[in-house]
Amino acid sequence: MERVPAWIYAREDKISLFKVIKKINNNELRGEVVEENGKKVQYVIVENDKNSPLNPKDNTNIAQENSNISNSEYKKLYLEIEKLRLEIEQMKQMLKESIKKRD
Fold this sequence. Notes:
Elements: E1 2-5, H1 6-13, H2 17-25, E2 30-36, E3 39-46, H3 59-67, H4 71-102
Antiparallel strand pairs: 1-3, 2-3
Helix pairs in contact: 1-2
């Protein structure tokens, strides 16, 4: 069991915070209110379940996904990223110059 702030639970479960609090009040979810730094914070008590959207992905799945990219594809993507970074820097510079001209 772990405590998760209600707003994080709502975001991960893709429902509104209002619905999460309503479920807690209707005893559909277990919850508790804790006072932190002078503010009341609503927490949801979540069972540790592998099917829960709040559990992170296994590192093995991420490694398998990354291993599917060949070396040449990786280099192409890296070069594309560098190209985009350069374009962003050029756009920032152009924006700064246009702001200076306007002032």
